[in-house]
Structures are given as C-alpha cells and as structure tokens.
C-alpha cells in the first residue's frame, strides 16, 4: 500500500563508508559537454558532488574521476550546489584507494 519500490540506485544509498576528499572532476549530463566540478566525499557506491550544474533528483549524469573514463551515476538528492549521487556500478576498492590518495 503506497510503498515505493526501491531502484538499484536507492539500494546502494549509504551502503559503503564515505571517504572525505576534495577532488576536481568533470561531469556531464547525457548528450552535453563536460563541466568542471568537485567531489567532497566518495565511496565505492557513490559521491557528494559540488557543482553549479542544475541537477534534478533521478537524473543520470557521467562523472570522470582523475585518470579514469567517465562513469554513469544517478542523482539521489540535491541541496543548493551539492548533490548526492550513486554510481551505476560500484567502484573497485583499488580505484577508490587511488582516488583518495590523490587527495
């Protein structure tokens, strides 16, 4: 009764420990050009993005982490210039460690 079915992205919410970072990334919405932004925390399942792009909950985007190809993610929440996003596929722990070391 009125219970919403959780999507693949919703099930990943807070499924992993967040690591605080300050890393420059490039992001884009499907079909658009890359835009410079910053990630302020990251886990294998998602990240907090600081960006002046207008993002809406439920929309998809691509994020390019330093040294890696773009990865698809979904916006779970937005609050001003910050958004919480979930990766479509979790990061490998070695990739997460590498990104945190860049910090």
Automatic annotation (TrEMBL):
Domain PilZ, first and last residues per copy: 14-102
UniProt cross-references to Pfam families, sorted A to Z: PilZ
Highest taxon of source: Bacteria
Gene Ontology molecular function terms on file: cyclic-di-GMP binding
InterPro entries: PilZ_domain
Name of the protein in question: PilZ domain-containing protein
Phylogenetic classification of the source organism: Bacteria, Pseudomonadati, Pseudomonadota, Alphaproteobacteria, Sphingomonadales
